[in-house]
Amino acid sequence: MLAIYVVLDGYDFGAGIVHLFFAKKEKDKKAITNAIGPFWDANEVWLIASGGVLFFAFPTLYASSFSGFYLPLIMILWLLIFRAIGLELRGQIHNRLWEAVWDKAFGIASFLLALFFGIALGNVVRGVNLGMVENGVSAHEAHYFFLPLWNPTFSPTAEHLGIIDWFTILLGLVGVVILTIHGANWIIYKTNSDLNNTLRTVIFRLNFVLLALVVLSLVVWHVIAPKPFHNFIETPWLWIFPILTLIGLFGLFLIRTFKKDGTGFIFSSLFILGGFASTAASIFPKLLPSTNTVNPSLTVYNVAADEYGLSVGINWFIFAVILLIAYIFIQYRVFKGKMDNIGYGEH
Amino acid sequence: MEDMLFYDRMQFAFTITFHYLFPQLTMGLSLIIVYFKWKFLRTRIDHYNDAAKFWMRIFALNFAMGVVTGIPMEFQFGTNWAKFSELTGGIIGQTLAMEGMFSFFLESSFLGLFLFGEKLLGHKLHFVTGFLVFLGSWASGFLIIATHSWMQHPVGYEILSNGKFVLNNFSALFTNPWLLPSYLHNQLASLVTASFVMASIGAFYILNDKHSSFGKLFVKTGVIFGLISSVLVAFPTGDWAAKNVVEHQPVTFAAMEGLFETQDGGSEIVLIGQPNVVDKKLDNKIAVPNVLSFLTYQKWDAEIRGLNEFEPENYPTNIPGLYYAYHIMVGLGTLFIGIMALGAFQLWRKKLYSTKWILWSLLFFLPFPYIANTTGWYTAELGRQPWLVYNLMRTSEGISPTVSSGNTLFTLLGFIGLYLLLGMLFLILVGKIINKGPVTAEA
Question: Residues in chain B with pLDDT < 70?
């Protein structure tokens, strides 16, 4: 679910970044807000729903990670609020300064959110000091921790870790680049704006950056997390996820040759979903690795809710997903095709 | 540790109070919008459709505010109340996740269609999307109150040796005796807010002599819905909810009513007075003998247990706060019935639109249902203290063990600043919509 959230709200963030860096003319900005306007809040519901499902299925993980990542999570909330008001408010009053302020709020918040989500992924891969062990003794219960925003050395291998270090920043950049590509793909898919050709070139060029960043982070990953490929060697069918990721990545190089405007979006979605699945496959069954030897990592087995609760949950969950697919089908069917003229935000 | 608990509670109280300013309008308003849309389908008079579209704009703005201020609520369970989440997540996580999966997806998917899809869908389908938005928002309220009811009156659980609460009966969560009265009481209270807002804005248009035909429709609709809902919110639902408190949380009831001592031969009802917790009495009290016993048990001499019969460690943490919250809610609720009854009487005599003082009263009553709704929630939540899960888990046991009070104060201040900005922007925008007024369909 979280992966779907990133694919969906990811294009919102990406569109925001495109808006920040590439949309100079009023017409282009309009095109972007029209392309994401009717979708963003439904996309954000995925975040709430993912949080809720995490809450009931893995209460211990929810408690541990939400309190441990306290500061970045609250800041993500603030950024989401800024983004939303930026997007919704800019069209309400026609005044150059008013529009400029909310454009920047929307764009910058989108950029930071993309960065934060990459950083978050980096934190999960790197692991945290569960139980806050110092000199071999846990200062708290085995599954609790707290991370400051950064430590003085910005090192992912330091004794006192921080949220932001050079490894997580690296993944943050991957987040920004792929979501920019993803957002640009969405705009191409959903509009006929003059921007589309520029965006194809942007995607093409950014893709080289993405490739370089991915290679670099894989190398670093190898150093930081022990045996990242262990699961893949044990269970060869898992290779399908990295392969999908690579198909997504290389497919994007062909962006300028695609006949249909939606094809690029499919490839960037593939990259995101594949990347997520590969990461999960790599650390499985861990959900949040421990960096010390005293306390065990949080795994799907030791943080799950009780069996009865899970079995009831899965029933209503399947039912809800069926309904959800129906809604999405209806929604995308009514708003199919290009959306240049819906006049979003101009009530 | 004390500091930490204080800041955690302040942050939750502040963010939930601000958040609930929005859903309390949208839940009630969605019902009235569906009513307008239904009237339009039956009569095909454009006036109703235009009215529905006007209120949809206000609805959409409030809905967006509700969404952005709602996400922090869910997050805070994990960030600030980690121990509580860990121990009870297997139960309250169910209802909260269901809210996300069932109601939010329903609401947000169809709100987009309702707002932008009128031309694409045609009127009948457009009505259906409106109805689904209404359904989603009321389902959302239901699941939140199911969660709330479990904390007030835990059911269907089992406590393991490691302290974890696990679910052993899913359907018990929805047959909880606390749930139905609280839910109906809350939804009707939401309808009271929506009715007053509608009547207030209608009165504004009539008094302003601008959009008067819409003004009349809004005042009329607001007064009719308002009278029905403000009566029903008091009786039977408010009465029913109070009887739940008497039965399951007698110490809370004693504190709500300012009843320090059990009174022989029946308890008086306190109208005014200031709780003096040190001397265990009410200062400057005005009370009517025996009425409380009658209201509670329909017997003038029934015994109601006062605070003196309970252990002080189980007293609600903030007795004066609880007492005031409850009395403000009840006092305002009584006024609402009065003003709406007068309005309805004048409406029946066909004199409402020219009775200036009633229109002015309706106009200025706008903030009060918000206050009544908020203090109603304070009554429920302060009444549950010092428990997080009633009689099973204390509030102090639920906080995050690793988050320091400095960090919580930091984020609390951040929320205060951000929400002040948000509140100002909201007022500017809603003012703009109201000032522009409903747009008549082009002939």
Answer: 1-2, 441-443
B202, B217 in Cβ contact below 8 A?
yes
**Mean pLDDT, chain A, integer:** 83
| Cβ separation A67–B79 shorter than 8 A | yes
Sign of the Cα torsion A274, A279, A281, A287 reads negative
Residues in chain B: 443
pLDDT of the residue at A2: 65
B276 within a domain of the structure (yes/no)? yes
Alpha-carbon distance B388 to nearest alpha carbon in chain A (angstroms): 16
Peptide bond between residue B289 and the one before it cis (omega within 30 degrees of 0): no
Structural domain span for residue B356: 187-402
In tens, the pLDDT along A283-315 reads 888 888 888 888 888 888 888 888 888 888 888
In a domain, B435, yes or no: no
Name beta bridge partners: B274: B283
Per-residue pLDDT of A321-334, as tens digits, reads 899 888 888 877 77
Could you give the CA distance from residue A279 to residue B126 in angstroms, rounded to a whole number? 43
Q: Find the radius of gyration of the CA atoms of chain A.
A: 21
Mutation choice for B interface testing from A36, A47, A48 by most B CBs within 10 A: A48
DSSP state of B279: T
DSSP calls for A300-320? HHHH---HHHHHHHHHHHHHH
State how beta strands B157-159 and B165-167 pair.
antiparallel
- In this structure, is residue B36 part of a structural domain? no
Q: What span, in angstroms and rounded, lies between the C-alpha atoms of A276 and A273?
A: 5
Written as one letter, the residue type at B58 is I
pLDDT at A225 over 60: yes
Under an 8 A CB cutoff, do B100 and A49 touch?
yes
Residue B52 lies in a domain: no
Q: Which residues of A130-148 are buried (b: 16+ CB within 10 A; e: fewer)?
A: bbbbeeeebebbbbbbbbe
Q: What is the mean pLDDT of residues A273-287?
A: 86
Q: Which residues of B touch A327 (CB under 8 A)?
A: 105-106, 109-110
CB pairs under 8 A between A and B: 216
Cα nearest neighbour of B77 on chain A:
A63
Q: How far is CA A109 from CA A13, A15, A83, B23, B309, in A?
A: 8, 12, 5, 25, 55
Our count of domains for chain B comes to 1
